[in-house]
Specification:
The complex is a heterodimer of chains A (460) and B (627).
Chain A lengths: L6 E4 L8 E7 L3 H6 L2 E3 L13 E7 L5 E10 L10 E7 L2 H13 L3 E2 L4 H8 L8 H22 L2 H26 L10 H21 L1 H8 L1 E6 L6 H11 L15 E7 L2 E7 L9 H16 L2 E7 L6 H10 L4 E6 L10 H6 L4 E4 L8 H13 L1 H4 L9 H22 L4 H19 L6 H9 L5
Parallel strand pairs in A: 1-7, 8-10, 8-11, 11-12, 12-13
Antiparallel strand pairs in A: 1-2, 2-6, 3-4, 4-5, 5-6, 9-10
Helix pairs in contact in A: 3-4, 5-6, 5-15, 5-16, 6-7, 6-14, 14-15
Chain B lengths: L1 E11 L3 H12 L4 E5 L13 E3 L3 H11 L3 H8 E7 L9 E6 L1 H13 L4 E5 L2 E7 L2 E7 L3 E10 L8 E4 L2 E4 L11 H7 L4 E8 L2 E3 L9 E3 L22 E5 L2 H9 L5 H4 L13 H7 L7 E6 L6 E5 L7 H8 L10 E3 L2 E8 L16 E3 L9 H19 L13 H12 L23 H11 L5 H23 L1 E2 L3 H9 L9 E2 L11 H7 L7 H12 L1 H18 L17 H10 L4 H5 L6 H16 L6
Parallel strand pairs in B: 1-2, 1-9, 2-6, 9-20
Antiparallel strand pairs in B: 3-5, 4-5, 7-8, 8-9, 10-11, 10-19, 12-19, 13-17, 13-18, 14-15, 15-16, 16-17, 21-22
Helix pairs in contact in B: 1-10, 2-10, 2-12, 3-4, 6-9, 12-13, 13-16
The chains are: A alpha/beta (460), B alpha+beta (627).
Chain lengths: 460, 627
């Protein structure tokens, strides 16, 4: 519960709005925004006048373009919270918006608590006295809903894993603390090399969770899917059908090459970056060959392949090429033109890839698309993609907590490697343990002391 | 009714809390009465003969830094000193000493008897005198009244004390003392909630009947240590302790007789501390443990009584003798005093303000084991604060409330009055969230200025403190100003000393950040002024752990904003509609002093804290008297 530190949050309802606004407020709001937003005019945000909009790019720390945006700097006290505020008006799509939000955290903001902007607005004298009661109600009401939402997001397995991890960390803390508080009792000596091994295990576990995390990877970066197939098999129609089917089209950035098109769609809650590749076939034409090579490299980069085949004709050599690309990859097989008479039994494809899902579709009639969506969602949530089901991190806040816990654990590791003593190690472990408690909502209380007494026989 | 005397402050009980309370109040200029059940037992140590240890040693240093007595008294009367945790980090190093119990009492008694403004009397206080919601004095068993605007309850384990040894129980205080039987009823009558706790102590055995060849010697440190910043002892006669272990035969006797254990058969109802379990509890809770260690600690230079640490018990006498005789070195031990358990009434500390004054009765304070704590040091720390605050109240000044980042004393009292306790509370370093700041080596820089401000730190201590601080400051500035360049000469010196070379110019002090580099080590290489060992230590710690210390200080700064938001005493939580019911009930019952304290109450969520902040701002704008 800090007062003047810098907070950020998405200020617009999530989903289908045309634009999405990220609001950053606090002493270092402008400095934070400056690290990720770069005006096209070349000026710095901190040199901008108050209440003047500026167009620019949002870039991550590697300099990669994330989104285009309008930034609005509102200097204290002329803002909603009466603090320095920067609003970034982004394309409304879930993916770039969340990505940008994550960047504000990396740039030094922390995620705002529910109702915190309103609370600050009131405490800083922005809101009228008569609104006090409303503000208090908002704080409690938002907390209630957010808890409900959070509970909904917390799958049993995810919170179970966090609880287990916290317990394992707590055991290490209890050992260190018991050896500190009861040096004359019979407590197994703390061997910091052993603690370090454990810490490395904890870090790996967190890395694993973050890697497989819905938010950590897919929600943040989107899932990249490439549509591959021989020419005229219905790739573009599939893309169009997917986009038409989903009203949640968020932005369309034309592909950087002429021969591939990127689109963003929200398929069953999964932000999908779809690349429509040029047809893959053998060709002598030099120009066309460049396009085909590019398609291949897109196919290699993508996390998911949507391999499309023409069901109305016999499989060709070109289809064989496609199957070669699918080999050993995460993919969904699509048998198009199911409205026409099938030229070969679908089993033939299925036998070749027994582990993959096969969906007969018709891009022309737009049928079979729901099955395809289900298959995509299944891929993301299912066991194939990311280890166990339920290990997903469901929102950016959770991912941020995991990342911070990981940082504390890395600090513990560094402390051990630097040859520092146990009391320093314990401090870092404790920070990690407390941080993770924010996910499960467990409070600090007497846990450490209870653990010491249940783990060790202590006493004079 | 006979009015036998009028004082500013009356302290009931002259144990470790009582003596600190009385000395502090008297030294701050209050006419003070210290009452005891027995003049022979002032500052008695009814349990183990040791003072200090992790967190507890820190408390002693803090008591001393504020101008309390425990550290000085321990330095004068202890017969073995050990610095514990020396390899575990600067924040958790702690001094632990073995006291000559009788000498400890005698010296403390002498100090009390010779302190200006302080009367010591043997009296049994039976009831409180309260008018309206203000305390007016106390009444004794013989009927005389002593009047005072401030009364401090420091009754230890004497309130309705009951001694239990096996099947035998009787009313009484520790070591054959009387119990204060009627005072409990008087407290209840005035609406004070009491709890029933239990603790215990092991047998004392005759030093002449032990076989030392079967035990390991546990000597004290070679270096002479002191608790007090004022002590100048440089040498000290020390005695040794011995270490031995229980075995399967011991455990079998205990298991076979478990049905006779008072805590197993329902004779004991009070709640005991987890960190001082009786040997029978240890056997029950950790049945797989093959042996338990025990230390044999002499109780003084002029007695043969040896304290058997680790063997606290309330088993019947025949069982105690049987199991002791199974232990190597104790085969022929003769018991001089039996182990026993004691049950007693204590005050639920949630009824207290952070000043240790009762919320419901003005001028009435409670301190020590009677607040549900355990340990001499915890008691003394509270006694000191209660004494100081009774004196400040007399002077119509604001009470002294130490913050959690200022001292273990602050953590201890904040925990008690915010969270309460459901077992005898013991201080541990793991209870302190700003442990790196609360070191025993810097207790003076944290607290001596505060002690000075309230008038408890006299000129001699203040002068000594200022000199030390100046020396530390001077040395730090010197080390910062003295720039080391990577010249041939410098590199040669470093190489000769076996130290890593430097790459760029840097302040000399930077070298202290390197692991294993000490000021003394640098003195051998460079021309540096001599420093007192204590000054050297401050310099080393503040440079080498600067990053960690700064991080904790930043945490403190963030928390302080909420600590500084005081909640008005008359706040009506029923009017704060948006609080959740649980939070509203807890807040109304505990009535925290600040928003920060409110946030530490279990059941008060961060959202509730936000609601409180908004409510405070609302009240402020409406012109209500909110700070």
């Amino acid at each position: 519960m800090q007062q003047s530190d810098t907070i950020s949050a998405i200020a617009t309802p999530q989903g289908t709005a045309g634009i999405g606004i990220i609001r950053i407020s606090g002493e270092t709001a402008i400095g934070t925004a400056e690290k990720i937003f770069f005006p096209v005019c070349g000026k710095k945000l901190s040199d901008m006048e108050s209440h003047r909009a500026v167009y620019g790019h949002i870039r991550d720390f590697q300099g990669e373009l994330v989104d285009e945006a309008i930034a609005l700097v509102m200097r204290s006290p002329h803002s909603y919270t009466k603090e320095d505020v920067v609003e970034l008006q982004c394309h409304g799509g879930t993916m770039p918006l969340r990505r940008t939000l994550a960047l504000t955290y990396e740039a030094g903001a922390r995620s705002a608590e529910r109702g915190e902007f309103t609370k600050r607005a009131f405490l800083n004298g922005r809101l009228d006295l008569s609104q006090a009661q409303a503000v208090m109600d908002v704080i409690q009401a938002r907390t209630r809903t957010s808890l409900k939402v959070a509970e909904g997001h917390l799958s049993g397995q995810f919170s179970g894993r966090i609880r287990n991890l916290r317990h394992d960390i707590l055991e290490q803390i209890a050992h260190l603390e018991a050896s500190i508080d009861f040096p004359e009792d019979e407590i197994e000596e703390v061997v910091l090399e052993h603690v370090e091994k454990k810490v490395v295990d904890f870090i790996n576990l967190l890395k694993e969770m973050l890697r497989t995390a819905h938010a950590g990877k897919i929600l943040r970066d989107g899932l990249t899917a490439a549509i591959i197939g021989k020419p005229n098999v219905g790739k573009s129609s599939l893309l169009n059908a997917l986009l038409r089917e989903e009203r949640a089209i968020v932005t369309d950035i034309p592909g950087t090459t002429r021969d591939s098109i990127e689109e963003y769609a929200d398929i069953g809650g999964v932000p999908l970056r779809i690349i429509d590749t040029a047809g893959i076939r053998r060709t002598e034409d030099a120009v066309e060959r460049i396009g085909v090579e590019r398609s291949r490299s897109y196919a290699e980069e993508a996390s998911l392949l949507l391999a499309i085949f023409d069901g109305s004709r016999e499989l060709t050599e070109e289809d064989e090429e496609i199957m070669g690309l699918v080999e050993g990859r995460e993919a969904i097989l699509l048998l198009n033109k199911k409205d026409l008479k099938l030229a070969f039994p679908p089993e033939r494809l299925q036998e070749r890839f027994p582990a993959l899902t096969l969906c007969p579709i018709s891009t022309k009639e737009e049928t079979g698309l729901q099955e395809l969506e289900k298959a995509i969602v299944q891929k993301v949530y299912g066991s194939n993609f990311s280890g166990e089901e339920g290990s997903f991190v469901n929102d950016e806040r959770q991912a941020e907590i995991l990342r911070q816990a990981e940082k504390h654990l890395e600090a513990a590791q560094n402390t051990i490697q630097a040859g520092m003593s146990v009391d320093f190690v314990s401090i870092d472990l404790r920070s990690a343990w407390e941080k993770l408690g924010e996910i499960t909502g467990e409070t600090v209380g007497e846990d450490i002391i209870d653990q010491i007494f249940s783990q060790f026989c202590i006493g004079k | 009714m006979f009015i036998a005397g009028k004082y500013d402050v009356i302290v009931i009980g002259a144990g470790h809390a009582g003596v600190e309370a009385a000395l502090a109040a008297a030294r701050m200029g209050c006419q003070t009465l210290l009452t005891t059940l027995s003049m022979e037992n002032i500052a008695m140590m009814p349990c183990n003969p040791s003072v200090g240890g992790p967190a507890k040693g820190h408390l002693v240093r803090e008591i001393d830094a504020l101008g309390g007595e425990m550290g000085i008294n321990a330095d004068k009367t202890c017969i073995q000193f050990r610095m514990l945790n020396t390899g575990k980090g600067p924040a958790v190093q702690a001094l632990r000493a073995q006291a000559d119990k009788k000498l400890y009492q005698l010296v403390m008694k002498e100090t009390c008897e010779n302190t200006k403004n302080l009367d010591v009397k043997q009296l049994l206080v039976e009831s409180l005198m309260v008018e309206g919601n203000m305390v007016k004095g106390v009444e004794t068993e013989t009927g005389e009244q002593y009047l005072a605007e401030n009364v401090i309850i420091a009754t230890g384990t004497y309130l309705k004390g009951r001694i239990i040894i096996g099947e035998s129980t009787h009313d009484g205080g520790p070591n054959g003392q009387r119990a204060a039987v009627k005072l409990s009823a008087s407290l209840l009558e005035h609406g004070i909630r009491l709890m029933r706790f239990k603790t215990g102590t092991p047998a004392r055995v005759d030093a002449r009947t032990l076989d030392y060849s079967k035990m390991q010697l546990q000597p004290g440190d070679e270096e002479c240590r002191n608790f007090s910043f004022m002590s100048e002892e440089r040498t000290r006669e020390q005695v040794s302790c011995w270490l031995t272990y229980t075995n399967e035969a011991t455990h079998k006797i205990l298991r076979d007789n478990m049905h006779r254990a008072p805590m197993a058969n329902g004779v004991i109802e009070g709640i005991g501390p987890r960190y001082c379990p009786s040997i029978e509890t240890k056997i029950l809770r950790f049945p797989d443990k093959e042996r338990h260690q025990l230390f044999l600690e002499p109780e003084g230079l002029h007695t043969n009584e040896i304290y058997v640490q680790g063997m606290s018990t309330s088993m019947p006498m025949d069982v105690q003798l049987d199991f002791l005789h199974t232990i190597p070195g104790l085969e022929n031990a003769r018991v001089m005093r039996a182990g026993y358990a004691i049950e007693y009434d204590c005050v639920d500390p949630l009824q207290l303000k952070p000043s240790l004054e009762f919320k419901s009765i003005g001028g009435l304070f409670s301190a020590g084991q009677s607040n549900g704590t355990s340990g001499y040091e915890e008691a003394a720390a509270q006694g000191l604060i209660a004494g100081i605050n009774a004196a400040l109240r007399t002077q119509r000044k604001e009470p002294l409330v130490l913050r959690r980042f200022e001292g273990y004393i602050g953590v201890l009292i904040d925990d008690l009055v915010t969270k309460g306790t459901n077992e005898p509370y013991r201080m541990m370093t793991s209870r302190a969230e700003y442990r790196l700041l609360l070191r025993q080596d810097n207790a003076d820089s944290r607290l001596t200025p505060i002690g000075r401000r309230i008038g408890l730190v006299k000129d001699d201590r203040w002068e000594r403190f200022r000199k030390k601080q100046e020396a530390v400051q001077g040395a730090l500035e010197f080390l910062q100003k003295e720039i080391l360049t990577p010249s041939q000469e410098t590199q040669e010196k470093l190489r000769a000393a076996g130290m890593e070379l430097i790459r760029t110019a840097m302040p000399l002090g930077e070298l202290l950040r390197r692991p294993g580099v000490t000021y003394e080590g640098l003195q051998k290489v460079f021309d540096l002024p001599d420093l007192e060992p204590e000054v050297r230590k401050q310099v080393e710690i503040s440079i080498s752990y600067e990053g960690y210390i700064r991080k904790q200080k930043e945490q403190v700064e963030r928390m302080e904003k909420l600590e500084n938001k005081l909640l008005p005493e008359n706040i009506d939580y029923a009017q704060v509609a948006s609080l959740r019911d649980e939070a509203r009930e807890k807040l109304a019952a505990i009535r925290p002093r600040s928003v920060g304290q409110a946030g530490r109450i279990s059941g008060v969520s961060p959202a509730d804290v936000s609601v409180l902040l908004v409510y405070l701002e609302q009240q402020r704008r409406m012109g209500n008297n909110v700070q």
